[in-house]
Design a protein that fits this description.
This protein is mainly α.
């Protein structure tokens, strides 16, 4: 038996590795079902419009050239296609490799069968392999697992979605075939079957037999496997279920395998009535809902509907009288077993002696419980989507529910009791097995000592009251001591027989030799008999009991069904939090199901063991979290009432208290209510903390961690919902709702934070730490998702550093057409109300004012309000999003110039003639008005678009500057030592870098060192940064760029006028709105992206412009500077100031006389 799977048997090892791989492939399919990119479903109109022309099903193969040409001819489609490839190629490759592994699995199975037939494995044939127990099992499993793979692919990955993914992989993959498998074969195997797993969908004809025929499997092999599954007890399960009524449960695993394998021979299902009757009589005489793999259930009424022979064979089972008989029997058993298990679980019932004396009875009760549970859970389960449309299925289920008087709570109670009972028995037997030898030796020692003492007593050497010397008894007790000494616990049968004989002998010797008269001798004999009884019990402790319990206690059929009892579990926890202790046993019972997929993987010593274990363990842990999440959920419900009482009902006590108002201010009822709610919360937490640390599969569940994760999850849900609902704006509103929304959100967030701080000591968690970590994670995740719209390579949910499976951040559908989430809406609302076309930024007031009404829109305090509502993380996230927007605007601006203006022949010729007319730059232009205006007017069409870009960049920079200021003030106020340390560190690093550039022998941070990256991150969070000095993009040196920008600036300056009272440039006409500060900051930011020489050239052009106008105005009064000159000098002064340059740069380009005159005009 074991020899077939021995390491030196290549025939056994090959099929074992294949079956191991099959289980691993199924685990990967189940894992990947959660990662199907929604875009391949093309469910929304938006997805259809955007991706419809680059995603195709298998119709692509008929018109691949036309499809690809259409994309190649359209630059936009080409760009979208390239972006799509970059974003999805990784996940597509993973899906394809899984699909390919299914094809390779069946190819390897066929190869193995051919090798067996050709005699490559010496002395091994298909028949000889099937004669060995392990060979029979693995060959049956190999076919069955292939069938399960095909069914799972169709169940969880819709045919059209599968086709679209395969086509996309085919188009994007450089290597379209591998040595072992070709993509064409994979596509043929996994093309759409027409099966749709949704309510009301019609059954596909000849499904799934046609699907199973796509790659033919050896017919002889299929028939022999079916023969073995039909006639043999492949897994020797009947030994664990000796009762004839339990036979269908004993063969349930085999029945599931047989169900799947029959689709490889549909002729049996259609026409072979005798065989089908034999199958139904043996496997399905009392059941029609079966589990085929890890809780995936099938209703035979629906599944076998199209098959004549199968349907007829099942009719006896589905006879109303037969259904009623079984339903009534299991209902009666349920009513009997619940009080029985309750009684057995009472304190003192399951003591060691009781259990050892009634081992068979205990196992029988466990068997009865599990058989009853299996039948009731499967046959009362909610119908699957495919079965729900079948009237007969519904009718039979309704009859079962009626006949059993089904109550989910009763079934759940039996499940709970059974799991706890099993766990206690298993723990007891494990302990007894560990202590078996020790106990045996201790009892044997006691017996020997007593026999030796009695021998000495009857020898007369040991004085004992009124005992005569009797040589016969002395010898007899001495011989018995030696006999006991020779007993060996490993020789179970012989030792047991001898012990029984010894007990009888001791009873006889007491009776015949009239030893009853002496109390001490009688006591010695009684003790020896008791110890011998104990030895007899100990010798009967066998590992077979645990193996039987493992087989009988299998709950793999309920891997998915157990979810229907979640609400009952949660209601029970709400009423009595200590129920969690009992639930632990249920979770452990469920974890035993992991052994089914892992058995062969473990035997094959496959590397997949850890990955598959992690998947199933992770799924079970996720379910445990889901059940126990009711505790934090209820907690937060109670917390909401505490928040209301603390913020709205309880009054703050005054410093001086009047005696008459003492009762009124005491608010005893309200304070008692707060205390009661707080106590309720602490009781809930106590419940989960009472659960022991439990190993579920390969993942250890720590109850404290579980509670903390649950609290985090609920907190994340509440905060994410508050942010989503609180930051939704009406774009049609006449006045901005931003202020009121931020105030309301600030109150909500403050309420949550205060209540969280209040409750932390009662639930033993670090409230503030959790609060800061989760708020930061929510903001960072939403910023990441919002920034995806600016990125080519998007960060998917499963790639995100901030998203988590155990504590997921909820995603809400977009509210408007532009923003993905609340952070985007906040940023765009901020941009809308500070739009340079409708507002004016006054630098001295650090505020924006409405251009028409002159009322204040936003001031410096506004950003404190933002900080209160979304925290430091929110401000930093907003800042990061604005950075992305600036990068996009700069790329659009410079990209348009590069591709259009600066490459256009007419433009280049114009710039060339302008440049010649202005040479040398140190000189002046003779007739500046005519000279400049002719070129400005020629470029009139491009100025509005450039102005829009420049103003947008300037506006974004101003907002960033304000955010940095608020962050810095907040950091200095809340953490002055951190602010000082960061500032000092920054100065020190910059000094070191400067020193390195002066002397390259001095140190510089290495490329792999995280110092600069981490420090920059800290500085951004602390607001120790200057947005105006930031380089956002890398640029090439663009010819004529400073000249173009100069012409643009002088074309816009006439629209502005200097307001002495406000000290800024404002728009001359309300019809042509233009805000001076964003304009200057925008131009400065653009030049910051280039080499400083470009900026210097720009300043030289402006200086020449100033000097040229001053020169032609000398005929006027010397005190009057032309308006163009004043505006330009204001612009230059602001430009130099925002660029962080010294003011003397102006003196380098413009004569002191002009600057003095300008200064006198301003004063």
């Amino acid at each position: 038996m074991a020899e077939f799977l021995a390491d030196n048997n290549p025939c056994g090892q090959y099929i074992l590795r294949l079956v191991s791989r099959g289980n691993a492939i199924i685990a990967e399919l189940l894992r990947l079902k959660h990662y199907i990119p929604p875009v391949f479903r093309l469910e929304t109109k938006q997805d259809q419009q955007k991706y419809g022309e680059i995603i195709s099903d298998f119709s692509y193969f008929k018109m691949s050239d036309d499809f690809d040409q259409k994309i190649d001819k359209n630059p936009q489609l080409q760009d979208l296609d390239e972006e799509f490839r970059e974003n999805y190629s990784e996940i597509l490759t993973r899906f394809y490799l899984t699909f390919e592994s299914i094809h390779k699995y069946v190819s390897d199975l066929n190869k193995y069968l051919d090798d067996l037939e050709e005699g490559i494995y010496i002395q091994q044939t298909l028949e000889s392999v099937l004669l060995t127990e392990e060979g029979k099992q693995t060959l049956c499993e190999a076919l069955y697992l292939y069938g399960v793979m095909l069914l799972l692919v169709d169940l969880h990955m819709e045919g059209t979605v599968r086709e679209r993914m395969l086509v996309s992989y085919y188009r994007y993959s450089a290597q379209q075939s591998h040595a072992e498998s070709n993509i064409d074969d994979v596509c043929k195997l996994l093309r759409s079957t027409g099966f749709i797993n949704c309510l009301g969908s019609k059954r596909t004809p000849n499904y799934p037999e046609d699907y199973f025929k796509r790659i033919p499997v050896n017919t002889t092999y299929v028939n022999m496997v079916l023969g073995r599954l039909r006639s043999d007890d492949v897994y020797n399960q009947i030994a664990a279920y000796p009762h004839p009524e339990h036979r269908s449960t004993a063969l349930a695993t085999q029945a599931g395998m047989l169900y799947v394998c029959l689709f490889f021979a549909p002729n049996i299902l259609h026409n072979q009535t005798a065989k089908m009757r034999e199958i139904v009589d043996k496997f399905f005489p009392d059941n029609w809902v079966i589990s085929i793999y890890m809780g995936i259930t099938v209703n035979l009424i629906d599944s076998w509907e199209p098959y004549k022979a199968a349907k007829n064979a099942l009719s006896n089972t589905l006879d109303a009288a037969n259904v009623k008989e079984h339903a009534t029997r299991y209902s009666t058993r349920l009513q009997k077993l619940i009080p029985q298990t309750r009684q057995l679980l009472k304190e003192g019932a399951l003591v060691e002696d009781n259990v050892l004396d009634h081992v068979n009875k205990v196992i029988y009760i466990i068997r009865e419980c599990n058989v009853t549970l299996r039948w009731l859970m499967l046959h009362t389960a909610v119908l699957s989507i495919t079965s729900a449309g079948n009237k007969r299925c519904k009718q039979i289920r309704d009859q079962v529910i009626s006949d059993t008087k089904y109550k989910a709570s009763e079934v759940f109670e039996l499940l709970l009791n059974t799991a706890e009972f099993e766990l206690k028995i298993k723990d007891l037997f494990k302990h007894l097995l560990m202590e078996k030898q020790k106990k045996w030796e201790a009892c044997k020692k006691e017996c020997v000592e007593r026999m030796v003492e009695l021998s000495e007593v009857f020898s007369g050497s040991k004085p004992l009251t009124r005992i005569e010397k009797i040589d016969n008894l002395k010898s007899w007790f001495s011989d018995l001591a030696k006999e006991i000494e020779t007993l060996n616990h490993e020789q179970i049968t012989a030792a047991g027989r001898k012990i029984v004989q010894m007990i009888q002998a001791l009873e006889e010797v007491q009776e015949y030799h009239q030893l009853d008269s002496n109390l001490q001798v009688r006591q010695f004999l009684a003790d020896t008999r008791r110890y011998l009884h104990q030895m007899n019990r100990t010798v009967s402790i066998k590992e077979e009991v645990l193996i039987t319990l493992q087989i009988v206690g299998d709950l793999s059929y309920a891997w998915e069904l157990v979810d229907t009892y979640t609400s009952i579990m949660q209601d029970g926890i709400k009423q009595d939090p200590s129920l969690v202790i009992k639930l632990r046993a249920t979770f452990l019972k469920l974890s035993s199901a992991l052994e089914i997929p892992l058995l062969r993987i473990n035997q094959a010593r496959s590397q997949d063991l850890v990955s598959v274990s992690q998947y199933y363990s992770g799924e079970l842990v996720a379910y445990v979290r889901k059940v126990l999440h009711i505790i934090p959920e209820t907690m937060f419900g109670l917390l909401a009432r505490i928040i209301h009482l603390q913020t709205s009902v309880l009054k703050e006590l005054p410093t001086r208290l009047e005696k008459d108002r003492l009762r009124e201010l005491a608010q005893l009822e309200e304070r008692h209510e707060v205390a009661r709610l707080t106590h309720a919360i602490s009781i809930l937490t106590e419940g989960i903390l009472m659960m022991k640390s439990t190993l579920v599969g390969i993942i250890r569940i720590d109850p404290k961690q579980l509670l903390e994760d649950g609290i985090r999850k609920e907190l994340v849900k509440h905060i994410a919902t508050a942010l989503h609902q609180g930051l939704t704006f009406n774009p049609k509103a006449k006045t901005s709702e931003l202020h009121t929304k931020l105030e309301a959100l600030g109150k909500i967030m403050d309420g949550h934070r205060r209540s969280f701080e209040y409750i932390q000591d009662y639930v033993n968690i670090y409230g503030l730490k959790i609060w800061q970590e989760e708020v930061s994670r929510i903001i960072s995740y939403n910023v990441e998702q919002e920034c995806n719209s600016f990125l080519r390579n998007k960060v998917q949910d499963w790639q995100s550093l901030y998203q988590s499976q155990s504590i997921p951040i909820p995603r809400f559908p977009p509210v408007d057409g532009q923003s993905v989430n609340f952070i985007g809406r906040l940023a765009r609302e901020l941009l809308r109300i500070t739009d340079p076309k409708t507002t004016v930024y006054i630098e001295q007031m650090t505020a924006w004012y409405d251009a028409k009404t002159h009322s204040e829109v936003i001031n410096l305090k506004f950003f404190s309000k933002v900080s209160k509502s979304v925290g430091t993380a929110g401000l930093t996230g907003l800042d990061r999003l604005l950075c992305f927007m600036i990068v996009t605007e700069l790329q659009n601006f410079l990209g348009a110039l590069q591709k259009g203006v600066l490459k256009d022949k007419q433009w280049v010729e114009m710039f060339s003639s302008v440049s010649k007319g202005m040479t040398p730059l140190s000189g002046t232009v003779s007739n500046p008005k005519n000279f400049y205006s002719q070129f400005i007017s020629r470029a009139q069409k491009v100025w509005p678009q450039i102005l829009e870009w420049i103003l947008k960049i300037g506006q974004l920079q101003l907002l960033r500057k304000h955010i940095a200021y608020e962050l810095n003030i907040s950091c200095k106020f809340n953490s002055k030592y951190l602010a000082s340390a960061l500032q000092t560190m920054n100065d020190a690093v910059l000094a070191d870098i400067e020193a390195h550039y002066k002397d390259p022998t001095k140190p510089y941070p290495k490329e792999e060192s995280p110092l600069l990256f981490d420090l920059a991150n800290y500085l951004d969070w602390a607001g120790i940064s200057n947005p105006y000095a930031k380089i956002y993009i890398t640029t090439k040196n663009l010819q004529y760029f400073p000249l173009l920008t100069f012409l643009f600036v002088i074309s816009q300056l006439p629209k502005l006028q200097y307001m002495k009272q406000l000290g800024t440039l404002l728009s001359r006409k309300s019809q042509e709105p233009l805000d001076g500060v964003p304009f200057v900051v925008g131009v400065q930011t653009v030049f910051r992206q280039f080499h400083p020489e470009i900026r210097n050239t720009f300043l030289l052009y402006l200086s020449q412009y100033v000097k040229s106008y001053v020169e032609i105005s000398t005929c006027n009064k010397p005190t009057d500077l032309p308006g163009e000159v004043v505006n330009t000098l204001h612009f230059m002064e602001n430009f130099v100031h925002h660029s962080g340059l010294p003011r003397k740069i102006l003196a380098n380009h413009i004569p002191d006389l002009i600057l003095d005159e300008y200064a006198s005009v301003n004063s």
